[in-house]
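Wed. Picked up where I left off yesterday with DNA replication licensing factor MCM3. The coffee machine is broken again, so keeping this brief.
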Amino acid sequence: MDLSDEVRASHKRTFLKFFEQTELDTELKKDFDSMINNNRRRVILDLSDFYNDREGSDLARRLLQNPSEYMQPLVDSLTDMMRTHNPKYLKEGEQVLVGFTGPFVSRRVTPRELLSRFIGSMVCVEGIVTKCSLVRPKVVKSVHFCPTTEKFMAREYRDITSNVGLPTGSVYPTRDDNGNLLVTEYGLCTYKDHQTLSMQEVPENSAPGQLPRTVDIVVEDDLVDSCKPGDRVAVVGVYKALPSKSQGSMNGVFRLTILIANNVSLLNKSANAPNYTEKVLK
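Structure written out below (tokens, as returned):
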């Protein structure tokens, strides 16, 4: 076990210990039952539950400031608790998805206030959705068969939106280490839904005489199609910067920043919800 695995296992034990000491594991079991009834895999954690304890406040601060280090151990701990609660619900290789809500205080911003000091941390951005892309599948793991050796091989793929590990290449392997041809078994590959959103600050909050600022958002899995253009939303996610390439080399200018979402809440849901009377329902 290398150092990164040791740190990851240590953080995982810290989360499990915190859930047991604060009795949040009892509340999580209710959330797990709700997940099973609604056929979902995402648990929404309230940051207020973390702030009720000194150790929890420290964990919340670490999650907000350094989510790339603490998000995956949290997912591992919740996955273990889910498998203990119901061993048959999650398939092999599946993990519990996690989202956040609650008081973000100074980290609740608009696209105009989303500055460089928030890069690499978790924020809550409020605005209005202006554009949604089509929902497309993104490969997570590919499976290949070699007719010569009659063996299968699998390869996992990660990009900048992943919470664990470095990004990998996106090219499918066509030959194995010995040069034998490989056939891709598309039916055995694993995919997940992927969608991009564009959100800008609401008109009443934009600066007079200036164009509204926008931010690109990436939503995946069960968060796709959770909103449509015109919706006012609050998106919680990790703010990341993508370096640009100039003639095949990397430079220090970051021209593209994105928000990797883990929770999407509609702000105008209650205001625009239809009011059905008993007469209409009959």
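Quick read: The mean pLDDT is 81.
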